[in-house]
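Pipeline run #58 for the internal structure catalog. This entry was flagged by the ingest filter as a single-chain record with no existing model, so it goes straight to prediction. Upstream metadata was stripped on purpose; only the residue string is passed forward. Reviewer on rotation: M.T. Logging verbosity set to normal.
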Amino acid sequence: MTKTRGSEITDKSVYVHRREFIAAAIAATGATMIVRNAEAQPAAAHGRKLATVASPLSTKEAPNSWDHITTYNNFYEFGTGKDEPARYAPRWRPRQPWTVSIEGECAKPGRLPLEDILKGETLEDRIYRHRCVEGWSMVIPWVGFPLANLIRKCEPTSRARFVEFTTLHAPQEMPGQRDDVLEWPYVEGLRMDEALHPLTILAVGVYGEVLPNQNGAPLRLVVPWKYGFKGAKSIVRMRFVEQQPTTSWMQNWPQAYGFYSNVNPSVDHPRHSQATEVRLPSLFRNLRTQLFNGYGEQVASLYTGMDLRRYY
C-alpha cells in the first residue's frame, strides 16, 4: 500500500474544513442557545437509552448539541470529510456479538464479548472537552467506564509497559478503508500509566444514548487530555506490549503526530498553530488552547521530567 503524503492530507483537510465551517456557521444560528444551556439539549434520534450515573470528573462547561457531536466527526474509516462519517456510518451494522481480543503480556488473554466487558460496570456520564489537532473543539457528554477496570481484569504482567489498540478492518463495509490515506487497520496506543489513569475511559455511549456508529460504536477510547485522533474507535483488539507501539498516524506523518499526542499549545502542527482553537459551532479561534486540554492538574505528574516538545 502506498502511503499518502502528509501534505496531501492536510491540503484536502484545509479545503474541506473551510467549506464545513461556513456550513456550520449557517446551521448553528439556531443552535447557539442550545450549546449554552445543557438542559435544553434535544433528545437523541434513536432513543436507545443507557442507565448511567453522573461522574464527578466532568467539566462544568455546557456540552455541544447532539447534532454537532454526531454530524461533525473524524472517522477516516468512513471518509476524510467531517460530514462523511454521519453519511456513511449509519449504513454499517456492527457485528454481533462484538468481541475484543485480549493479547500480549497478560495472565488472562482471550476473546471477550462486549457483554462480558460491560458486566458489573457502572456506566458514567462524563462531560469532557474534546480537542482535535485541526484546531477545533467540542464538549462531549460521553458514557463509559474506566479503562483501568478492564486492564485489571486482564492481569497484565510486569513486562506490559504499553497498551496497543487495534480497530476493525472491514473495507467492504467501511469505504474510507479502500483509500490509502492511512495504513489499515487503525492502531493507537497508551503508556500503561496513561491507560490506568481515572480520566481514561472506554466509551459505549454519548448523551445517555448508545454510541452512534459515526462516533466509534460500539466501543471507543476517550483520553481527554490528548488530541481526538488518539481515541481509537470500533476497537477489536487490546494488546499488552513491552515496546512503544507504532501508531497509524506516527507511521503516516511522524513529524505531525507523535506517540503522546498531548494537547500542547506550544507545539505547532507543521501546517498550523495549536495556540488557539475554535469551539464549535463558532467559526473563530477565540479560545486559548490549554496545556493538557485543561486537565493539567490531574495528569501533569505523568510527564514529570519529560521534554514535552520532544515527546509530543
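catalog note: The radius of gyration is 18 Å.
catalog note: The domain at 6-303 is CATH 3.90.420.10 (Sulfite Oxidase; Chain A, domain 2).
status: ready for reviewer M.T.
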